């Protein structure tokens, strides 16, 4: 299915708004993936179902759950949302007290069931299941080496590289896993399961979020704390950079497979990806985003009649901007929550103005008003331009855009599906040129210093507030060049 808008096809996948190619009409950054693990609970599968449902915003393409009853694996994976893939009959077959689950976001070119996780393998020591959030930057290089030694890969997923490294080792599983983790470079939160063990590991920089919780005697691991709240578990702590945790019949074993490097949690988790009711590194994300909006107001005040945020990720920041300035916050835009996976081709009119499928302006609110529009980021600029024009069409007499992140100039190698650097508008245009491109009356971005101060949390005194800000400043915390084979986005 495709149509033309300025000679550009609106979409090329099997359904509307699938994929992340340069012609995707919504040029927002694509969510990462989400992982959820349980050890020691008889309802492990049910807990994983509800946990993955809470993490659904991190991936809508596919999902899966693998459960062990200490004798064999029971697992199910499918394309679609958690509620679409799992039903009562399927859940009844997933028996056991150890489980790992995964939600995967939509990518272009690798959208098929074979890449749905958890990946399940049989090797010399029995069954092995793996799930991850993130990206192994040197995966292509390692994959080529393994293939030259005879390995046969079944998927295009980075996760399978780790499985082959473990399987080829003659050491016991935990030592083989440590050895494998030391070989890979990137940002990742890994879960590895056997019939008796659950192994959880974070990359040496803690680029991808991973939190440990407790529910009675059971241990829970998740990408975001909102999933712990959903199942009534208590938060224990974040998994540390370079840490490897092993759970077996003797309890929890805490270890490190390498020396931790500088803490560098993805800054876009705070700005955009994670749910506002989640906590990361001691900072609640709703509160952090409100502070971003407040800091934005202090750095780039503009007089206006109302403040509105692009739903849903920018609402908290818009409230913060409004509170700081005294300008009323209004619901100037409404998000249609039911456009994500529709196979019905939109009408010709909506194809020509595709953003209206997802957002609509509240005319009676913005008409005749000077509007401050708060958003979290600008990627290519096409969506920002459409939203600004939509507000103007609804009668706004001025539209001032405030972005609660610095200009997004560089691709991510650690799990965010970003375009090529040449497609990032801030990589080649000044702020004034971007303002003209998106048809705004004024435009300002939050400074890096303002972002660090606004996030706060436990790592506020660390280098860059304990965040990776490479997408803004090109300062990557790991090596990224592996013979030109490195890849952007999420390799899981």
TrEMBL record:
Keywords: 4Fe-4S, Glutamine amidotransferase, Glycosyltransferase, Iron, Iron-sulfur, Magnesium, Metal-binding, Purine biosynthesis, Transferase. It comes from Paenibacillus bovis. This is Amidophosphoribosyltransferase. The active site is at residue 33. Mg(2+) binds at residues 313, 375-376. InterPro entries: GATase_2_dom, Ntn_hydrolases_N, PRTase-like, PRTase_dom, PurF, PurF_N. In the C-terminal section; belongs to the purine/pyrimidine phosphoribosyltransferase family. One of its GO terms (biological process) is purine nucleobase biosynthetic process. Its cofactor is [4Fe-4S] cluster; Mg(2+).
């Amino acid at each position: 299915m495709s149509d033309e808008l300025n000679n550009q096809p609106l979409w090329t996948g099997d359904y509307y708004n699938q994929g992340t190619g340069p012609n995707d009409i919504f040029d927002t950054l694509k969510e990462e993936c989400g992982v959820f693990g349980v050890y020691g609970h008889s309802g492990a599968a049910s807990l994983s179902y509800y946990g993955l449902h809470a993490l659904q915003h991190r991936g809508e393409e596919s999902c899966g759950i693998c459960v062990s009853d200490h004798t064999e694996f029971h697992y199910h994976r499918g394309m679609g949302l958690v509620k679409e893939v799992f039903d009562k009959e399927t859940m009844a077959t997933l028996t056991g007290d150890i489980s790992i689950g995964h939600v995967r976001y939509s990518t272009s070119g690798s959208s098929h069931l074979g890449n749905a996780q958890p990946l399940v393998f049989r090797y010399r020591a029995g069954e092995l299941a793996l799930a991850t959030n993130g990206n192994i930057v040197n995966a292509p290089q390692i994959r080529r080496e393994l293939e030259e030694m005879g390995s046969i890969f079944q998927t295009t997923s980075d996760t399978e590289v780790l499985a082959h490294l473990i399987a080829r080792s003659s050491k016991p599983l935990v030592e083989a896993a440590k050895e494998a983790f030391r070989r890979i470079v990137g940002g990742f939160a890994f879960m590895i399961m056997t019939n008796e063990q659950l192994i959880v590991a974070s990359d040496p920089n803690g680029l991808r979020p991973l939190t440990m919780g407790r529910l009675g005697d059971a241990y829970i691991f998740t990408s975001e704390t909102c999933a712990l709240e959903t199942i009534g578990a208590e938060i224990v702590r974040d998994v540390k950079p370079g840490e490897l945790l092993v759970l077996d019949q003797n309890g929890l074993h805490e270890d490190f497979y390498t020396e931790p490097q500088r803490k560098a949690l993805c800054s876009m988790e705070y700005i955009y990806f994670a749910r506002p009711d989640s906590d990361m590194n001691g900072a609640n994300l709703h509160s952090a985003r409100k502070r971003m909006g407040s800091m934005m107001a202090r750095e780039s005040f503009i007089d206006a009649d109302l403040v509105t945020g692009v739903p849903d990720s920018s609402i908290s920041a818009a409230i913060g901007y409004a509170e700081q300035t005294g300008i009323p916050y209004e619901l100037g835009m409404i998000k249609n929550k039911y456009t994500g996976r529709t196979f019905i081709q939109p009408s010709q009119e909506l194809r020509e103005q595709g953003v209206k499928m997802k957002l609509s302006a509240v005319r009676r609110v913005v008409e005749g008003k000077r509007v401050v529009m708060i958003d979290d980021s600008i990627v290519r600029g096409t969506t920002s331009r459409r939203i600004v024009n939509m507000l103007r069409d609804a009668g706004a007499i001025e539209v001032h855009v405030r972005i609660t992140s610095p200009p997004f100039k560089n691709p991510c190698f650690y799990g965010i599906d970003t375009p090529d650097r040449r497609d990032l508008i801030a990589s080649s245009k000044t702020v004034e040129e971007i303002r003209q491109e998106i048809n705004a009356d004024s435009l300002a971005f939050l400074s890096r210093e303002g972002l660090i101060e606004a996030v706060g949390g436990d790592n506020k005194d660390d280098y860059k507030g304990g965040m990776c800000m490479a997408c803004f400043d090109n300062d990557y915390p790991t090596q990224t060049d592996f013979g030109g084979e490195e890849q952007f986005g999420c390799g899981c």
